[in-house]
Specification:
Elements lengths: L2 H9 L4 E5 L5 H10 L3 E5 L5 H6 L12 H11 L2 E4 L10 E4 L14 H11 L6 E5 L7 H14 L7 E5 L9 H7 L2 E5 L2 H11 L7 E5 H32 L3 H8 L22 H6 L11 H26 L8 E5 L14 H11 L3 E5 L10 H5 L4 E4 L4 H4 L3 H7 L4 E4 L15 E4 L5
Parallel strand pairs: 1-2, 1-4, 2-3, 4-5, 5-6, 7-8, 9-10, 9-11, 11-12, 12-13
Antiparallel strand pairs: 6-7
Helix pairs in contact: 1-8, 2-4, 5-6, 9-12, 12-13
Length: about 450
Protein backbone atom coordinates (compact mmCIF):
# COMPACT_ATOMS: atom_id res chain seq x y z
CA UNK A 1 0.00 0.00 0.00
CA UNK A 2 1.42 3.38 -1.01
CA UNK A 3 0.58 6.90 0.15
CA UNK A 4 -2.08 7.47 -2.50
CA UNK A 5 -3.81 4.18 -1.71
CA UNK A 6 -3.88 4.95 1.99
CA UNK A 7 -5.19 8.45 1.32
CA UNK A 8 -7.98 6.94 -0.77
CA UNK A 9 -8.91 4.48 1.99
CA UNK A 10 -9.09 7.33 4.49
CA UNK A 11 -11.28 9.34 2.12
CA UNK A 12 -13.79 6.53 1.59
CA UNK A 13 -13.55 5.35 5.23
CA UNK A 14 -12.37 1.85 4.38
CA UNK A 15 -9.10 2.41 6.26
CA UNK A 16 -8.95 0.22 9.36
CA UNK A 17 -7.77 1.98 12.51
CA UNK A 18 -6.15 0.85 15.74
CA UNK A 19 -6.02 3.15 18.77
CA UNK A 20 -3.40 1.94 21.24
CA UNK A 21 -4.18 3.01 24.79
CA UNK A 22 -7.80 3.24 25.94
CA UNK A 23 -7.59 5.89 28.61
CA UNK A 24 -8.71 9.52 28.74
CA UNK A 25 -7.41 10.16 25.20
CA UNK A 26 -7.50 6.86 23.35
CA UNK A 27 -11.02 5.76 24.27
CA UNK A 28 -12.80 8.94 23.10
CA UNK A 29 -10.62 9.08 19.97
CA UNK A 30 -11.56 5.50 19.11
CA UNK A 31 -15.25 6.19 19.76
CA UNK A 32 -15.22 9.35 17.63
CA UNK A 33 -13.64 7.62 14.64
CA UNK A 34 -16.08 4.72 14.98
CA UNK A 35 -18.90 7.25 15.10
CA UNK A 36 -17.70 8.57 11.75
CA UNK A 37 -17.96 5.14 10.14
CA UNK A 38 -14.43 3.75 10.51
CA UNK A 39 -13.62 0.22 11.62
CA UNK A 40 -11.73 0.85 14.88
CA UNK A 41 -9.91 -1.53 17.19
CA UNK A 42 -9.04 -0.21 20.63
CA UNK A 43 -5.96 -1.75 22.20
CA UNK A 44 -5.10 -1.88 25.89
CA UNK A 45 -3.23 -4.47 27.93
CA UNK A 46 -4.74 -3.42 31.26
CA UNK A 47 -6.46 -6.56 32.63
CA UNK A 48 -10.19 -6.61 32.03
CA UNK A 49 -10.35 -3.26 30.24
CA UNK A 50 -11.00 -4.64 26.75
CA UNK A 51 -13.79 -6.84 28.08
CA UNK A 52 -15.39 -3.88 29.83
CA UNK A 53 -15.29 -1.76 26.68
CA UNK A 54 -16.67 -4.61 24.55
CA UNK A 55 -19.59 -4.82 26.96
CA UNK A 56 -20.34 -1.18 26.19
CA UNK A 57 -19.31 0.00 29.65
CA UNK A 58 -17.50 3.33 29.86
CA UNK A 59 -14.45 2.84 32.12
CA UNK A 60 -14.05 6.60 32.63
CA UNK A 61 -16.28 7.37 35.61
CA UNK A 62 -16.06 11.15 35.79
CA UNK A 63 -18.57 13.50 34.19
CA UNK A 64 -17.96 13.10 30.44
CA UNK A 65 -20.92 14.36 28.39
CA UNK A 66 -21.77 12.07 25.48
CA UNK A 67 -18.93 9.58 25.88
CA UNK A 68 -20.90 6.66 27.32
CA UNK A 69 -23.52 7.00 24.60
CA UNK A 70 -20.94 7.26 21.81
CA UNK A 71 -19.12 4.20 23.15
CA UNK A 72 -22.30 2.12 23.28
CA UNK A 73 -23.19 3.20 19.75
CA UNK A 74 -19.77 2.17 18.44
CA UNK A 75 -19.91 -1.23 20.14
CA UNK A 76 -23.49 -1.99 19.10
CA UNK A 77 -22.78 -0.99 15.48
CA UNK A 78 -19.80 -3.33 15.33
CA UNK A 79 -17.51 -0.51 14.21
CA UNK A 80 -15.69 -0.43 17.54
CA UNK A 81 -14.25 -3.22 19.62
CA UNK A 82 -11.31 -3.64 21.98
CA UNK A 83 -8.53 -6.16 22.45
CA UNK A 84 -5.37 -6.79 24.44
CA UNK A 85 -3.84 -8.90 21.66
CA UNK A 86 -1.55 -7.09 19.20
CA UNK A 87 -1.80 -10.01 16.78
CA UNK A 88 -5.27 -8.73 15.88
CA UNK A 89 -3.72 -5.55 14.48
CA UNK A 90 -2.11 -7.15 11.42
CA UNK A 91 -4.80 -5.81 9.07
CA UNK A 92 -4.80 -2.23 10.42
CA UNK A 93 -3.94 0.65 8.09
CA UNK A 94 -3.55 3.38 10.72
CA UNK A 95 -2.14 3.15 14.25
CA UNK A 96 -2.85 5.96 16.73
CA UNK A 97 -0.73 5.71 19.87
CA UNK A 98 -2.13 7.34 23.02
CA UNK A 99 -0.26 5.79 25.94
CA UNK A 100 1.07 7.42 29.10
CA UNK A 101 4.39 9.26 29.00
CA UNK A 102 5.24 10.07 32.64
CA UNK A 103 8.36 11.58 34.15
CA UNK A 104 10.17 10.09 37.15
CA UNK A 105 11.14 11.73 40.43
CA UNK A 106 14.18 13.24 38.70
CA UNK A 107 11.95 14.73 35.98
CA UNK A 108 13.28 12.36 33.31
CA UNK A 109 10.76 11.06 30.74
CA UNK A 110 9.90 7.41 31.21
CA UNK A 111 8.73 6.03 27.89
CA UNK A 112 8.24 2.41 28.98
CA UNK A 113 4.65 2.27 27.74
CA UNK A 114 5.54 4.06 24.50
CA UNK A 115 8.46 1.75 23.77
CA UNK A 116 6.38 -1.33 24.51
CA UNK A 117 3.51 -0.16 22.30
CA UNK A 118 5.81 0.71 19.40
CA UNK A 119 7.68 -2.59 19.68
CA UNK A 120 4.44 -4.57 19.68
CA UNK A 121 2.84 -2.72 16.78
CA UNK A 122 6.06 -2.87 14.73
CA UNK A 123 5.93 -6.66 14.87
CA UNK A 124 2.54 -6.70 13.11
CA UNK A 125 2.63 -3.43 11.11
CA UNK A 126 1.65 -3.95 7.49
CA UNK A 127 3.53 -2.34 4.60
CA UNK A 128 2.39 1.24 4.02
CA UNK A 129 0.72 1.74 7.41
CA UNK A 130 0.49 5.18 9.05
CA UNK A 131 1.64 5.55 12.68
CA UNK A 132 0.49 8.64 14.61
CA UNK A 133 1.75 9.49 18.09
CA UNK A 134 -0.87 11.39 20.10
CA UNK A 135 0.95 11.00 23.42
CA UNK A 136 2.71 14.11 24.68
CA UNK A 137 6.45 13.73 24.22
CA UNK A 138 9.62 15.76 24.67
CA UNK A 139 11.00 17.67 21.67
CA UNK A 140 13.03 15.40 19.38
CA UNK A 141 11.41 12.20 20.69
CA UNK A 142 9.93 11.45 17.27
CA UNK A 143 13.36 11.71 15.63
CA UNK A 144 15.49 10.22 18.40
CA UNK A 145 13.25 7.44 19.74
CA UNK A 146 10.07 6.72 17.79
CA UNK A 147 11.51 6.65 14.27
CA UNK A 148 14.61 4.54 14.95
CA UNK A 149 12.69 2.10 17.14
CA UNK A 150 10.00 1.51 14.50
CA UNK A 151 12.55 1.11 11.73
CA UNK A 152 14.63 -1.33 13.76
CA UNK A 153 11.74 -3.44 15.05
CA UNK A 154 9.79 -3.55 11.78
CA UNK A 155 12.67 -3.76 9.30
CA UNK A 156 10.89 -1.06 7.26
CA UNK A 157 12.03 2.43 6.29
CA UNK A 158 9.99 5.53 6.99
CA UNK A 159 8.26 7.04 3.92
CA UNK A 160 8.80 3.74 2.11
CA UNK A 161 7.53 0.92 4.31
CA UNK A 162 5.46 3.09 6.68
CA UNK A 163 4.48 6.71 7.33
CA UNK A 164 4.93 8.57 10.61
CA UNK A 165 3.54 11.64 12.31
CA UNK A 166 2.78 13.36 15.60
CA UNK A 167 -0.59 14.94 16.43
CA UNK A 168 -0.61 15.78 20.17
CA UNK A 169 -3.97 15.66 21.90
CA UNK A 170 -5.48 18.70 23.60
CA UNK A 171 -8.02 17.40 26.09
CA UNK A 172 -9.21 17.94 29.64
CA UNK A 173 -11.24 15.51 31.76
CA UNK A 174 -14.88 16.57 31.79
CA UNK A 175 -14.58 17.97 28.26
CA UNK A 176 -13.00 15.09 26.35
CA UNK A 177 -15.33 14.89 23.36
CA UNK A 178 -15.84 18.64 23.19
CA UNK A 179 -12.12 19.35 23.21
CA UNK A 180 -11.35 16.68 20.62
CA UNK A 181 -13.97 18.15 18.31
CA UNK A 182 -13.57 21.87 18.95
CA UNK A 183 -9.89 22.51 19.69
CA UNK A 184 -7.33 23.08 16.97
CA UNK A 185 -4.55 20.53 16.45
CA UNK A 186 -0.97 20.74 15.26
CA UNK A 187 -0.41 17.95 12.73
CA UNK A 188 3.26 17.10 12.52
CA UNK A 189 4.38 14.74 9.79
CA UNK A 190 7.76 13.39 8.81
CA UNK A 191 6.92 14.84 5.39
CA UNK A 192 4.41 17.51 4.29
CA UNK A 193 2.51 14.78 2.40
CA UNK A 194 2.14 12.79 5.62
CA UNK A 195 0.82 15.86 7.43
CA UNK A 196 -1.79 16.40 4.73
CA UNK A 197 -2.88 12.76 4.93
CA UNK A 198 -3.23 13.04 8.71
CA UNK A 199 -5.29 16.21 8.29
CA UNK A 200 -7.63 14.34 5.95
CA UNK A 201 -8.06 11.69 8.67
CA UNK A 202 -8.69 14.04 11.59
CA UNK A 203 -11.07 16.21 9.57
CA UNK A 204 -13.62 13.47 10.09
CA UNK A 205 -14.38 14.79 13.57
CA UNK A 206 -12.19 17.87 14.28
CA UNK A 207 -14.19 21.02 13.59
CA UNK A 208 -11.30 23.44 14.31
CA UNK A 209 -8.05 24.26 12.54
CA UNK A 210 -5.70 21.42 11.68
CA UNK A 211 -2.33 23.10 11.19
CA UNK A 212 0.36 21.20 9.23
CA UNK A 213 3.85 21.24 10.71
CA UNK A 214 6.97 19.15 11.15
CA UNK A 215 7.23 16.77 14.10
CA UNK A 216 9.53 18.94 16.21
CA UNK A 217 7.14 21.89 15.94
CA UNK A 218 4.24 19.68 17.01
CA UNK A 219 6.21 18.37 19.99
CA UNK A 220 7.20 21.90 21.02
CA UNK A 221 3.73 23.40 20.69
CA UNK A 222 2.12 20.83 22.98
CA UNK A 223 4.74 21.01 25.71
CA UNK A 224 5.05 24.81 25.48
CA UNK A 225 1.32 25.42 25.91
CA UNK A 226 1.18 23.43 29.15
CA UNK A 227 4.44 24.92 30.44
CA UNK A 228 2.93 28.35 29.74
CA UNK A 229 -0.09 27.50 31.87
CA UNK A 230 2.14 26.19 34.64
CA UNK A 231 4.19 29.37 34.72
CA UNK A 232 1.08 31.56 34.72
CA UNK A 233 -0.52 29.57 37.54
CA UNK A 234 2.72 29.79 39.52
CA UNK A 235 2.65 33.58 39.13
CA UNK A 236 -0.93 33.67 40.44
CA UNK A 237 0.00 31.41 43.35
CA UNK A 238 2.99 33.53 44.31
CA UNK A 239 0.85 36.68 44.15
CA UNK A 240 -1.61 34.92 46.48
CA UNK A 241 1.20 34.39 48.99
CA UNK A 242 2.24 38.04 48.69
CA UNK A 243 -1.37 39.17 49.17
CA UNK A 244 -1.73 37.06 52.31
CA UNK A 245 1.49 38.48 53.76
CA UNK A 246 0.46 42.04 52.93
CA UNK A 247 -3.03 41.67 54.35
CA UNK A 248 -4.68 41.87 50.94
CA UNK A 249 -7.13 39.82 48.88
CA UNK A 250 -5.68 38.15 45.79
CA UNK A 251 -9.15 37.45 44.39
CA UNK A 252 -10.05 41.15 44.33
CA UNK A 253 -6.59 41.99 43.01
CA UNK A 254 -6.99 39.47 40.18
CA UNK A 255 -10.41 40.85 39.26
CA UNK A 256 -9.07 44.38 38.96
CA UNK A 257 -5.82 43.42 37.20
CA UNK A 258 -7.82 41.59 34.55
CA UNK A 259 -9.80 44.74 33.76
CA UNK A 260 -6.65 46.12 32.18
CA UNK A 261 -6.36 45.35 28.44
CA UNK A 262 -4.16 42.38 27.53
CA UNK A 263 -4.01 41.15 31.15
CA UNK A 264 -5.25 37.71 32.12
CA UNK A 265 -3.99 36.65 35.52
CA UNK A 266 -4.74 32.97 36.13
CA UNK A 267 -6.50 31.52 39.18
CA UNK A 268 -4.45 30.71 42.25
CA UNK A 269 -5.23 27.47 44.02
CA UNK A 270 -4.31 24.66 46.38
CA UNK A 271 -2.07 22.93 43.84
CA UNK A 272 -1.66 21.84 40.24
CA UNK A 273 -2.40 18.25 39.26
CA UNK A 274 -3.37 16.10 36.32
CA UNK A 275 -1.44 14.15 33.77
CA UNK A 276 -0.26 17.16 31.75
CA UNK A 277 0.70 20.34 33.58
CA UNK A 278 2.94 18.81 36.28
CA UNK A 279 4.70 16.72 33.61
CA UNK A 280 4.82 18.58 30.31
CA UNK A 281 7.14 21.40 31.45
CA UNK A 282 9.73 18.74 32.27
CA UNK A 283 9.18 17.15 28.86
CA UNK A 284 9.69 20.56 27.23
CA UNK A 285 13.04 21.18 28.90
CA UNK A 286 14.31 17.59 28.75
CA UNK A 287 17.79 17.61 27.26
CA UNK A 288 18.00 21.41 27.13
CA UNK A 289 20.73 21.65 29.77
CA UNK A 290 22.88 19.21 27.77
CA UNK A 291 22.40 21.49 24.76
CA UNK A 292 23.67 24.51 26.67
CA UNK A 293 20.39 26.03 27.92
CA UNK A 294 20.47 27.24 31.53
CA UNK A 295 16.98 26.68 32.91
CA UNK A 296 15.54 29.03 35.55
CA UNK A 297 11.91 30.07 35.08
CA UNK A 298 10.19 26.77 34.26
CA UNK A 299 11.75 24.74 37.12
CA UNK A 300 10.97 27.64 39.51
CA UNK A 301 7.32 27.62 38.45
CA UNK A 302 7.13 23.88 39.06
CA UNK A 303 8.54 24.41 42.54
CA UNK A 304 5.98 27.10 43.38
CA UNK A 305 3.04 24.99 42.25
CA UNK A 306 4.30 21.87 44.00
CA UNK A 307 4.53 23.84 47.25
CA UNK A 308 0.89 24.94 47.36
CA UNK A 309 -0.53 21.86 49.15
CA UNK A 310 2.08 22.43 51.87
CA UNK A 311 0.97 26.04 52.12
CA UNK A 312 -2.57 24.80 52.62
CA UNK A 313 -1.33 22.85 55.64
CA UNK A 314 0.21 26.06 57.00
CA UNK A 315 -3.15 27.84 56.64
CA UNK A 316 -4.76 24.93 58.48
CA UNK A 317 -2.27 25.07 61.33
CA UNK A 318 -2.83 28.82 61.73
CA UNK A 319 -6.63 28.41 61.69
CA UNK A 320 -6.54 25.61 64.26
CA UNK A 321 -4.26 27.66 66.51
CA UNK A 322 -6.81 30.49 66.54
CA UNK A 323 -9.39 28.15 68.07
CA UNK A 324 -6.88 26.75 70.52
CA UNK A 325 -6.19 23.44 68.80
CA UNK A 326 -3.03 21.76 67.55
CA UNK A 327 -2.67 19.84 64.32
CA UNK A 328 -1.19 16.93 66.29
CA UNK A 329 -3.86 14.22 66.67
CA UNK A 330 -6.42 16.43 64.88
CA UNK A 331 -8.91 14.79 62.53
CA UNK A 332 -9.04 16.78 59.30
CA UNK A 333 -11.82 16.45 56.72
CA UNK A 334 -10.22 16.78 53.29
CA UNK A 335 -12.81 17.60 50.64
CA UNK A 336 -11.69 16.50 47.19
CA UNK A 337 -9.09 13.99 46.03
CA UNK A 338 -9.26 14.18 42.23
CA UNK A 339 -7.10 16.83 40.61
CA UNK A 340 -10.04 18.51 38.81
CA UNK A 341 -13.58 19.41 39.71
CA UNK A 342 -16.30 16.88 38.83
CA UNK A 343 -13.75 14.32 37.64
CA UNK A 344 -12.53 10.97 38.94
CA UNK A 345 -9.00 11.61 37.64
CA UNK A 346 -6.51 11.44 40.53
CA UNK A 347 -3.29 11.65 38.51
CA UNK A 348 -0.76 13.87 40.34
CA UNK A 349 -3.49 15.03 42.71
CA UNK A 350 -2.31 17.88 44.98
CA UNK A 351 -4.41 16.31 47.72
CA UNK A 352 -2.01 13.37 47.78
CA UNK A 353 0.82 15.67 48.85
CA UNK A 354 -1.40 17.39 51.40
CA UNK A 355 -2.51 14.09 52.94
CA UNK A 356 1.09 12.88 53.20
CA UNK A 357 2.05 16.08 55.02
CA UNK A 358 -0.89 15.76 57.43
CA UNK A 359 0.26 12.27 58.35
CA UNK A 360 3.81 13.56 58.89
CA UNK A 361 2.48 16.12 61.38
CA UNK A 362 0.48 13.53 63.30
CA UNK A 363 -2.95 14.47 61.98
CA UNK A 364 -5.60 12.03 60.75
CA UNK A 365 -6.97 12.94 57.29
CA UNK A 366 -10.56 11.91 56.53
CA UNK A 367 -10.97 12.10 52.77
CA UNK A 368 -14.20 12.70 50.86
CA UNK A 369 -14.67 12.89 47.09
CA UNK A 370 -18.07 12.40 45.42
CA UNK A 371 -16.47 11.09 42.20
CA UNK A 372 -14.15 8.47 43.67
CA UNK A 373 -15.67 5.22 44.93
CA UNK A 374 -13.12 4.81 47.71
CA UNK A 375 -13.94 8.22 49.19
CA UNK A 376 -17.55 9.01 48.31
CA UNK A 377 -20.61 8.81 50.55
CA UNK A 378 -22.48 11.30 52.68
CA UNK A 379 -20.16 14.26 53.20
CA UNK A 380 -21.74 15.28 56.50
CA UNK A 381 -21.23 11.80 57.92
CA UNK A 382 -17.63 11.83 56.74
CA UNK A 383 -16.79 15.11 58.47
CA UNK A 384 -18.62 14.30 61.70
CA UNK A 385 -16.30 14.80 64.66
CA UNK A 386 -13.47 16.31 62.59
CA UNK A 387 -11.55 19.27 63.98
CA UNK A 388 -11.51 21.14 60.65
CA UNK A 389 -12.51 20.88 56.99
CA UNK A 390 -10.31 21.71 54.01
CA UNK A 391 -11.55 22.23 50.44
CA UNK A 392 -9.01 21.03 47.90
CA UNK A 393 -11.25 20.56 44.82
CA UNK A 394 -14.10 22.76 43.61
CA UNK A 395 -16.57 19.94 42.99
CA UNK A 396 -20.09 21.17 42.22
CA UNK A 397 -21.37 19.21 45.22
CA UNK A 398 -19.23 21.27 47.58
CA UNK A 399 -20.58 24.54 46.22
CA UNK A 400 -24.03 23.39 47.32
CA UNK A 401 -23.07 22.37 50.86
CA UNK A 402 -25.31 23.41 53.73
CA UNK A 403 -22.71 25.30 55.75
CA UNK A 404 -24.76 25.26 58.93
CA UNK A 405 -25.06 21.48 58.68
CA UNK A 406 -21.36 21.23 57.93
CA UNK A 407 -20.50 23.38 60.95
CA UNK A 408 -22.72 21.29 63.20
CA UNK A 409 -20.93 18.11 62.10
CA UNK A 410 -17.46 19.50 62.83
CA UNK A 411 -15.92 19.52 66.29
CA UNK A 412 -14.43 22.96 65.57
CA UNK A 413 -15.82 25.57 63.13
CA UNK A 414 -12.63 25.66 61.05
CA UNK A 415 -12.93 25.80 57.27
CA UNK A 416 -9.89 26.24 55.00
CA UNK A 417 -10.77 26.95 51.37
CA UNK A 418 -8.13 26.38 48.70
CA UNK A 419 -10.40 26.90 45.69
CA UNK A 420 -12.66 29.82 46.64
CA UNK A 421 -15.67 27.53 46.69
CA UNK A 422 -17.45 29.73 49.22
CA UNK A 423 -17.57 32.95 47.25
CA UNK A 424 -19.88 34.73 49.70
CA UNK A 425 -16.97 34.99 52.14
CA UNK A 426 -17.90 32.93 55.15
CA UNK A 427 -15.24 34.87 57.05
CA UNK A 428 -17.92 37.49 57.74
CA UNK A 429 -19.69 34.90 59.85
CA UNK A 430 -18.05 35.18 63.25
CA UNK A 431 -19.12 31.63 64.05
CA UNK A 432 -16.67 30.32 61.43
CA UNK A 433 -12.88 30.38 61.45
CA UNK A 434 -12.78 30.69 57.65
CA UNK A 435 -9.40 30.81 55.86
CA UNK A 436 -9.28 31.53 52.14
CA UNK A 437 -6.10 31.01 50.14
CA UNK A 438 -4.74 34.38 49.08
CA UNK A 439 -6.64 36.46 51.60
CA UNK A 440 -5.46 37.49 55.03
CA UNK A 441 -7.97 36.14 57.54
Amino acid sequence: MNLNELRARIANKTAKLAVIGQGYVGLPVAALFAGQGFDVLGVDIKPGLAEKINAGINPIEGFEPGLAELLKEGISSGRLRATADYKELADRDVFIVAVETPVDDNHIPRYNALRAALTSLASVMKHGALVIIESTIAPRTMNDLVLPLLEKQSGKKVNEGFYLGNCPERVMPGKLLNNLRKMSRVVGGMTPETSEMMIALYKNFVEADLDPADCITAELVKTVENAYRDVQIAFANEVALVAEAAGGDVWKVRELVNKSPQRQMHLPGAGVGGHCIPKDPWLLVHGAEERGVHLRLIPAARSVNDSMPLHMVKLLEDALAKVGRSILDARIAVLGYSYLEDSDDTRNSPTRSLVARLYELGAEPVIHDPWITEYNGDVYEKVKGCDAAMVMVAHSAYKELDLEKLKSALRSPVLVDGRRVFVNNQGDDSAWRYSLLGKMG
